[in-house]
Design goal:
With 162 residues, the protein is an alpha/beta fold. The protein has six helices and five strands; from the N terminus they run βαβαβαβαβαα. Helix content is 45%, strand content 17%.
Length: 162
């Protein structure tokens, strides 16, 4: 069965460590992979695709060496493999124009300003992954232990499948 990954793209190792720590409760069901740049993320996305898996959530810093996070997310939106991926921009430095570009062209699902609290990051990740599995998966029961149970139960009732 295909796995659904969380990818985290962040050039600062200490921030990446915090993200992984904050999301560790989800890793049993959603493996977490990391990249330190947009170029590394492209390689990671290709590997996940080649292995027959999916990306449910992409958390991406905006300001990184090389391509910016918004640029990567726009590319992801234009690629059939990652267009359904839930996209969250993490940054303290994006300007209004860049944020508008991300929302309009990358179909950004959320924007989280740095610094965030662990609870805030987990809530966003759970909300976005719940939306992803409801839209993309048929067997929702396997996600009850880590995602939004009420939304999953409602989707099961509404769609008439388990």
């Amino acid at each position: 069965m295909a796995e659904i990954y969380i990818i985290c793209v962040e050039d600062e190792p200490q921030v990446l460590d915090v993200i992984i720590r904050d999301l560790s409760a989800l890793e049993e069901v959603f493996p977490i992979e990391v990249a330190h740049s947009a170029d590394e993320a492209r390689v990671l996305i290709r590997e996940i695709r080649e292995d027959g898996n999916h990306i449910g959530l992409a958390l991406c810093d905006h300001v990184m060496p090389g391509d910016k996070g918004v640029d990567l997310m726009i590319e992801m939106q234009q690629d059939a493999f990652t267009e359904k991926t839930r996209k969250v921009l993490l940054t303290g430095q994006a300007g209004l124009e860049e944020t508008i570009e991300a929302i309009n062209n990358a179909r950004l699902n959320r924007y989280i300003a740095k610094p965030w609290t662990p609870e805030q990051l987990v809530k966003v990740a759970v909300d976005e992954l719940t939306t992803y599995v409801i839209e993309q998966e048929k067997d929702l029961l396997q996600y009850m232990g880590v995602l939004d149970q009420a939304r999953l139960q409602e989707a099961i009732r509404n769609k008439g499948y388990i």
